[in-house]
Specification:
The chain is of the alpha+beta class and 155 residues long. It has a single domain (30-154), classed as Pnp Oxidase, Chain A (Roll). Helix content is 20%, strand content 33%. The protein has 3 helices and 9 strands. It has a 7-stranded antiparallel β-sheet with strand order 4-3-7-8-9-6-5, with helices on both faces. Strands 1-2 form a two-stranded antiparallel sheet. It is globular and about 35 Å long.
Length: 155
Amino acid sequence: MTGRANYPPHLFCVDATASRIELTMDASTGFASFQRHKYLNLETFRKNGQGVRTPVWFAADPASGVPQTFYVYSTADSGKAKRIRNRSGVRVAPCDARGNLRGDWIEARAEVVTGEAAQHGMRLLNKKYIPWKQLLDFFSSFSRHPRAVFAIRPA
């Protein structure tokens, strides 16, 4: 029972298969469960339907209250960017830096955003992850890989 003290008991009696246990939640709670977390586990799907999970930084919009949109960034040629362009359906769950789940999976839709929406997302990420995001931005300025910003909304 270690590690469960911070979570309501209803989160731990869900889908158990031979290879994994998954947490699920009532969809009505939406993105509210992410408010105190630094990372989200983004599960994108290959063309064959196989899920690929990646822990990522995210910023919520609005920053206070129940978030309606999450912003995530990556290189434009990354696997997750390609998978999102091919299939917008994703799942997200709060997690730690290593991808260990800290909450429930939520069905969502992701899209690549550009222009003002992308700039807004990057501003939110810069504000949340100061000074680490600025340090990574400095080093990425030497890279030839452009960045993509994703907006993630509940399905």
